[in-house]
Write a structure and sequence with these properties.
Two copies of one chain form a homodimer. Chain A has about 300 residues and is α/β, with parallel strands linked by helices. Chain A is about 55% helix and about 10% strand. Chain A has three domains: about 5-70, Multidrug-efflux Transporter Regulator, Chain: A, Domain 2; about 85-160, Methyltransferase, Methionine Synthase (B12-binding Domains), Chain A, domain 1 (Orthogonal Bundle), CATH 1.10.1240; about 165-285, Rossmann fold, CATH 3.40.50. The two termini of chain A are about 35 Å apart. The interface between A and B is large, with 47 and 52 residues. The structure holds a DNA duplex (30 and 30 nucleotides).
DNA sequence: GATCGAATCGTCCAAATCGTCCATTCGATC
DNA sequence: GATCGAATGGACGATTTGGACGATTCGATC
């Protein structure tokens, strides 16, 4: 269960990040952490800010469990094996609540959205997909696994909040005919964690419509997931038209997904491509705080 | 009614501002917050005061709306008209956070899952769908609206929890080729509220696989939503095979969705049919022992 | 109108945070 | 090796906050 505690005090954040209270206070005062103040001048740090800082600064030993008020979970039954093994087992057995708890506990352990996506969810869903192919799993089990993960990820997305109001904007979408929600959700999570504002337009979106949204919202980044493409030639044609709108507003496109093999990619124009969320994160970092954030100027951390 | 209750109690404000109840009481007593009193000395804090405090503390307004589980908003902007009008406007304008808050506030106002589904979400989505048809809305806006509602509904589902362990089991699914997630989520919400355990197998599920799941989990009820059917004859054939499995475990099937017109329905065997969630609820009540409804209170967030 | 659980009341005190100052540490530079 | 600037961690009294307590009020239900 996700803690309902929305704001953290200095000591909590200090413990979580492994620094002193004084340092947290100084970081807040210098603007590195955006925090509100109580009438009595106490600092209130939004959960999302603490989490963003923890990931951005790359605290490997950050005890993110403290951020959520989550006591370190004792090893329960079923925790044997690697995290991937464990989650796969829970999903196969249809243990939704347990799977969701495990998912969120894993996230809290400090791996961040990228680790969650690339090291846990992706391999698990590959295995489940494989099990479905070879017949050891029924379709409904694959559906149920997706449903469970979707539910857990949406909870995390909601928890991370709408993003920083002044953060750069990213649009996310999945191509027409593509029914896979998980990549879009994971992308949203990754970018939220990096301080972006994200509008995830969901699955099965025609590129024409994504172009309209691009012109209207003028994002700095667009992440497009394509796990399935009905007609490649038609897709390429629509993509080129779409890319004109993108160029018009100066946005960057990063594409991903199994459907975009090398041959197809060679016919498209985009700023980045990646199979993993790590690629998306790396890419986004180059685009996120270059101009406006004074926080990186003083600290070469 | 959504627009009643112009005052907030101490606890609400405390949660919204991220401080304790004691602090709110002290602030009111010291005059920092102007508040009225009931005859029994309870503090009544005008929403505008809470809003002012939130601004002074430096929190974005959206946070306040989200965290206070807002049952009422000031009439400043946007709340004019019926709840349907209001939610439609928020969705059209892409105000996700506000729309989600509104959705949840509406639910908390006591209408229950059935009222939420039939009186708010269904008409709103009909309007949005209509706007898309006539071209006043782009596809991405329809997608975004669905995305927003999905997110809000999932949050409610998660909070209603996995259902009572001893409650009767229901399976939910949406037919193959049907991409609409909302009916399934609403059905899940309705049944959870009635004390059922629910396994929602999600969209785009072949009936063959639903049959397998039925044999394995042996539910008492199956709710099947069909907004789109590719091939009616094939569907009828598969449905009959599916219904054998259903009969084998003694489950009841209730079907719904636009795709199931009268002519098609006459060819199918089911225990119930309904266009509205009220039908599903009524039907489910007959199949489950009288259960107290675990309506979600204000303590959810 | 009577009843009952949940929320709030007022009051109290321990605990946490405030701002400030200073010693220490760590690189970079001279 | 010495020096300097920047960042950190800890200590100080003053202030603010959070939680506990029994009594009271609210609100929903019968």
């Amino acid at each position: 269960m996700i803690s309902a505690e929305p704001y953290l005090k200095t000591q909590r954040v200090a413990q979580a990040l492994g620094v002193s209270v004084s340092t947290i206070k100084r970081w807040v005062d210098s603007g590195m952490i955006q925090a509100a103040r109580t009438v009595g001048k106490h600092r209130l740090i939004p959960f999302s800010e603490a989490l963003r800082l923890a990931r951005e600064q790359g605290f490997p030993e950050a005890n993110l469990a403290l951020l959520s008020g989550l006591a370190s979970r004792p090893r329960e039954q079923g925790d044997a094996g690697s995290p991937v093994d464990c989650l796969e087992r829970l999903l196969r057995e249809g243990k939704r609540t347990e799977a969701r708890s495990f998912l969120q506990a894993y996230y809290r352990s400090g791996v961040g959205a990228v680790g969650l996506a690339d090291d846990l969810i992706r391999p698990v869903m590959e295995r489940i997909g494989h099990g479905w192919m070879v017949g050891s799993l029924d379709i409904y089990q694959e559906h149920e696994a997706t449903e469970t993960l979707t539910s857990g990820l949406r909870e995390l997305v909601t928890r991370l909040g709408p993003g920083r109001p002044e953060g750069p904007l990213a649009l996310g979408a999945t191509t027409e005919g593509d029914p896979y929600v998980l990549p879009g959700l994971l992308g949203e999570l990754v970018l939220l964690e990096l301080g972006w504002r994200v509008r995830n337009l969901g699955i099965n979106l025609p590129l024409r419509s994504l172009a309209v949204a691009t012109l209207k919202h003028r994002p700095r980044l667009i992440f497009l997931s394509a796990s399935y493409i009905r007609n490649e030639d038609e897709f390429v044609k629509e993509y080129r038209s779409f890319h004109e709108s993108v160029a018009a507003v100066g946005a960057a496109v990063i594409v991903g997904g199994q459907a975009l093999g090398p041959s197809l990619r060679s016919r498209l124009l985009f700023a980045g491509h990646g199979d993993r969320m790590a690629h998306l994160a790396e890419f986004a970092r180059r685009f996120s705080p270059p101009a406006e954030s004074p926080m990186l100027g003083d600290a070469g951390l």
